[in-house]
Design a protein that fits this description.
By secondary structure, this protein is an alpha+beta fold. Among the domains are: 31 residues; 128 residues; 117 residues, no CATH class; 108 residues, no CATH class; 112 residues, Sandwich (Jelly Rolls), CATH 2.60.120; 109 residues, Sandwich (Jelly Rolls), CATH 2.60.120.260. Strands 3, 5, 6, 29, 31 and 32 form a six-stranded antiparallel beta sheet that branches. Strands 10-11-17-13-14-15 form a six-stranded antiparallel beta sheet, with no helix packed on it. Strands 8, 9, 12, 16 and 18 form a five-stranded antiparallel beta sheet that branches. A hairpin with a 5-residue loop joins strand 13 and strand 14. Helix 8 packs parallel to helix 10, helix 10 packs antiparallel against helix 11 and helix 12 runs antiparallel to helix 13. The two termini are 33 Å apart.
């Protein structure tokens, strides 16, 4: 069909050329229409954008990039699934990620050699995104790379993408590089507010953006640049209280210079695109409010001056626009103003006299009139105003009618009819606009007419389908129906508008799958759906690019069904990884003096194990399988238990209650009070309010209890006492003849502890001038838990507030653990919860000189392990072993529940044998530290091998 049309067109041109030649030879005058005079308009903004072929933009470009996004998300969830199910070890997961990244990047170079212009940059960026995520996950989850090393790798990847975007002039590559550049310091943040480095880093890359933008005036990169800078600054602004003014202020000033330089030096002087004006205004707003936030915190009296300066800058920009314009305001501006006033009066009157559907109908009819006027008038402003008005009318239709209850049947009710009528009116405007309107207006009216009808279907499904799952399925069916209704005839009859409509609806359907449906699937189904959808979208995009002029219904429709059906694949079963004993340096046999039986076992850990192992690398192994366990502090009972008499110091009764003041007996050393027992000659029931203390003037501990004695020897007459309070005052209601028979005392339970001393010379101690504080970093590579800290400073008299931060392995950042009040009167501090990793102490010096740490002592609790022995674990001749000494081991996650009721059950006591060096220990290429160096080498080698061919191909990619 295309070749026949081309031949007809060539024949017509040849006939016209022959006619012109004959007229010239005969001297026949050729009528020429006078050129229309240039139109003058008060509004010089361009309201129509030069948009490339929609079919290539959507089918060949957007679908492909959406597919790559799906592949990236699928890769992330695949790594999570591998972690959850322990398919492969940590090093292999990272290796697979790096291999996948280099594969996608290399495949993109192959497609670029096939003269494809859209898919290769997105595929190359996807490969680098997978490399980026692999390196980041290595640091966040496994810690094979250090913080500095990881940041260096991420920065190198971002710089390479930026370099290739410069040599190729490709905006997609720059977008990937810019996102990587900004995300690197944000994702690597440890919560320490390193804002000086952060803003210096951003400033360098912002200047790099300016240099690239001088050569390439891209459309979307500036918006991404504005977005990442604004989100970065306002995301950091919550840390203003612990920062200084100059660094962020200089960053904002340089950023404003970049915006101004781009506006006046890079953007052509005759460019009056609305998008450029909007971008410049938003950039000034961002910088202005950023400077306002700084001055509001540091120098609030200068806020007015800041806004005055920004206003002068904006006036200067407006003056520049007016200087470049004709400076004339034609009579058309008056008519435009009159039209606006008339429409305003009409809309106000409609708002007063009509409501609901009639009001929406009135707005639709006004839109019809405005659009017809705009399509038949030469003034671009009316056309633009018609589009803006229809946006308002559609929003009013949606918000006033979508949620409204109505009578009738599905698709046969007044609500759907008003949506259908609006869609028909918009389609009528579209047909009329084909004569004179701009391409943007025509596309807007066409797609708006389709969208309004689909919204009407959605509204009916919302109120006629109660089950939310079937309702969601109904939304999908509507989109599939309309997509096929436009796609199939569009390809069969080679109708470009129908194919465009089908493409747009397909994008909506895919977006729904990504943004809602996929998140409600199981993890494995989600991964399969993302990979299959992503692959289908990428193949469809390649199909569009390679066979753009050969698209037929038979060749395209299978691709449509391919990527719409990928998410229906079912789930599969998974298996777990076994224990790798060759990764542990030591093991000890777990011994028992009695035969092992089913139940709980308790195993004390000695100090040698606690010093050689970390908090996460202990494993109990029997028959090659791990036995779940929990760790807890070892508690020892000291002192004596027994009972004694009570001395009554005071006794009085009123009509409402009896009052007693008691003195408890002296306790044996290390013992504590337990219970006081009350009796009466008769059966009784009483409520007691009592308080206790170390003296009669210091009764500070309050409590209450109920006691009784019923028939059949039902008795509860003991009340709990404070461990060390010798004096007790009781108010018993009702009054009576009460006796205090005895008091019991018991052993005190104290945690067993040991100490380690740290030399301050081995610590990293810094002073922060912004907050006038001293920060002491204390490493804890073995992750030994400690519950108390003892400080010794050189100063003899001081009082400071301090905050303890603990390093969180999962989030790779410091979190607040506890606040302290450091004074010369106390040197030992007990923590609310033990610290199990590296930590830092921030001491607020206020106006004082920094303290000088002389000695630091950590007090560790001795620990024991509680584990459960199942019937399957009881095998004669097979002993249990405790493996330890692997600092790369991950945190064990066991389904093990040990409650207070379990603690009351008698437990078997175990002990440890002698320490034995594991003869099976060996360094594996799939385990750290060897695997981390292999990953580094593969990463370096892959980059080196990829750089030269990539540079050659991207330098020719124009």
């Amino acid at each position: 069909m295309d070749y026949e049309n081309l031949e007809k067109r060539i024949s017509a041109l040849e006939a016209e050329l022959k006619l012109l030649k004959s007229q010239l030879n005969l001297g026949v005058p050729i009528d020429r229409e006078p050129a229309p005079p240039p139109s003058k308009s008060f509004f010089k903004f361009k309201t129509s954008w030069k948009i490339p072929d929609w079919e290539m933009l959507l089918g060949g470009n957007l679908l492909g990039k959406t597919g790559f996004l799906a592949i990236i998300l699928g890769f992330i969830w695949f790594i999570k699934l591998a972690i959850d199910n322990e398919w492969i070890n940590e090093s292999t997961r990272i290796f697979i990620g790096i291999l996948s990244g280099f594969f996608f990047s290399s495949l993109s170079l192959y497609f670029s050699k096939k003269d494809m212009k859209i898919i290769p940059p997105a595929m190359f960026g996807t490969g680098f995104a997978i490399l980026f995520l692999s390196i980041l996950l290595d640091f966040k989850l496994y810690g094979l790379f250090s913080l500095t090393e990881t940041f260096l790798y991420l920065t190198i990847l971002s710089l390479i993408l930026t370099l290739f975007s410069y040599v190729s002039g490709n905006e997609v590559l720059y977008g990937f590089g810019l996102l990587g550049t900004i995300l690197s310091p944000v994702l690597m943040s440890t919560g320490e507010n390193s804002y000086k480095f952060f803003f210096l880093y951003l400033t360098v890359f912002n200047i790099l953006f300016l240099l690239i933008n001088i050569k390439f005036n891209w459309k979307f990169a500036p918006w991404l640049f504005l977005l990442v800078n604004s989100t970065s600054f306002y995301g950091w602004s919550s840390k203003l209280y612990s920062s200084s003014f100059p660094i962020p202020f200089i960053y904002l000033i340089i950023l404003e210079f970049i915006f101004l330089y781009r506006e006046f030096k890079i953007i052509p002087g005759d460019s009056y695109k609305l998008s450029e004006r909007l971008y410049f205004i938003l950039s000034l707003i961002f910088v202005s409010f950023g400077i306002f936030a700084l001055t509001e915190h540091f120098y609030p009296s200068f806020n007015a001056h800041i806004f005055l300066i920004q206003a002068l800058i904006l006036l200067f920009a407006i003056s520049k626009y007016q200087t470049n314009s004709t400076g004339e305001v034609s009579h058309h501006s008056k008519s435009i103003i009159n039209i606006l006033i008339a429409l305003s009066f009409l809309m106000v009157s409609l708002q007063i006299y009509f409501d609901g559907k009639l009001l929406s109908l009135g707005f639709v009819l006004i839109g019809l009139a405005v659009s017809f006027l705009g399509t038949r008038d030469e003034r671009k402003f009316l056309s633009l105003f018609g589009v803006l008005y229809w946006i308002f009318a559609i929003m009013h239709l949606y918000f006033r009618n979508f949620n409204e209850q109505t009578n009738g049947y599905f698709l046969f009710n007044t609500r759907f009819l008003i949506f259908l009528f609006t869609g028909l009116v918009l389609f009528l405007v579209y047909k009329e606009s084909q004569k004179t309107a701009h391409q943007f207006d025509k596309r807007f009216y066409l797609f708006s007419s389709i969208s309004v009808v689909i919204l009407g279907n959605f509204a009916d499904i919302r109120y006629f389908v109660d089950d939310r799952y079937y309702r969601n399925l109904g939304y999908s069916y509507v989109l599939v129906f309309y997509a096929l209704a436009f796609f199939i005839p569009g390809f069969l009859y080679s109708s470009l508008p129908l194919r465009k409509a089908g493409m747009l609806i397909s994008i909506l359907l895919i977006s729904k799958l990504y943004l809602y449906d996929i998140w409600n699937m199981s993890l494995s189904v989600r991964i399969i759906a993302l990979f299959s959808l992503g692959t289908g979208l990428v193949l469809t995009s390649i199909f569009f690019q390679k066979f753009k002029n050969k698209i037929t219904g038979g060749s395209m429709i299978p691709f449509i069904f391919f990527f719409l059906g990928g998410y229906l694949i079912s789930n599969s079963s998974l298996s777990a990884e076994s224990f790798q004993k060759n990764s542990y340096h030591f093991y000890r046999e777990i011994l028992s003096e009695k035969p092992i039986s089913e139940g709980y076992g308790i195993l004390p850990l000695d100090r040698e194990i606690q010093s050689r192992s970390g908090f996460y690398d202990i494993r109990i192994i029997k028959s090659g399988k791990q036995i779940p366990y929990i760790r807890r502090n070892k508690i020892s009972a000291i002192g004596k238990s027994g009972e004694s008499k009570v001395q009554i110091l005071f006794n009085d009764s009123t009509e409402e209650k009896s009052i007693f003041l008691l003195k408890l007996p002296n306790l044996p050393e290390d013992s504590i009070y337990n219970q006081l027992y009350i009796s009466n000659s008769d059966n009784f029931e009483a409520s007691i309010n009592y308080k206790s203390g170390d003296s009669t003037e210091n009764l500070i501990h309050f409590n209450s209890a109920s006691v009784f004695k019923y028939y059949d020897n039902q008795i509860q007459n003991g009340i709990k006492l404070s461990p060390k309070d010798m004096f007790v005052r009781l108010e018993i209601t009702p009054p009576g003849d009460y006796n205090f028979d005895r008091i019991t005392y018991m052993e005190s339970r104290m945690p067993e502890e040991f100490k380690t001393e740290i030399n301050p010379d081995d610590l990293d101690i810094k002073n922060n001038p912004d907050t006038n504080s001293t920060i002491i970093y204390v490493p804890n590579e073995s992750n030994q838990p400690f519950s108390k800290i003892k400080f010794e400073f050189q100063e003899k008299s001081f009082s400071r507030s301090a905050i303890i931060y603990e390093w969180i392995h999962d989030g790779k950042e410091f979190n607040v653990k506890q606040t302290l009040s450091l004074t010369h009167k106390s040197d030992e501090y007990e923590l609310n919860y033990p610290i199990k990793s590296s930590w830092k102490l921030e001491i607020n010096n206020s106006d004082n000189q920094p303290l000088n740490l002389k000695k630091l002592t950590l007090i560790h609790p001795e620990e024991e392990i509680i584990f459960y022995i199942s019937p399957n674990d009881i095998n004669e001749g097979e002993s249990m072993h405790l493996y330890y000494g692997n600092k790369y081991a991950s945190i064990p996650v066991y389904d093990f529940n040990f409650s207070r009721e379990s603690n009351s059950v008698p437990m078997q006591i175990f002990k440890l044998g002698d320490e034995i060096q594991n003869p099976d220990f060996s360094y594996s290429i799939t385990e750290p530290p060897v695997s981390s160096w292999i990953i580094r080498g593969f990463f370096y080698l892959g980059l080196i091998l990829l750089l030269f061919p990539s540079y050659r191909i991207w330098s020719r990619y124009k």
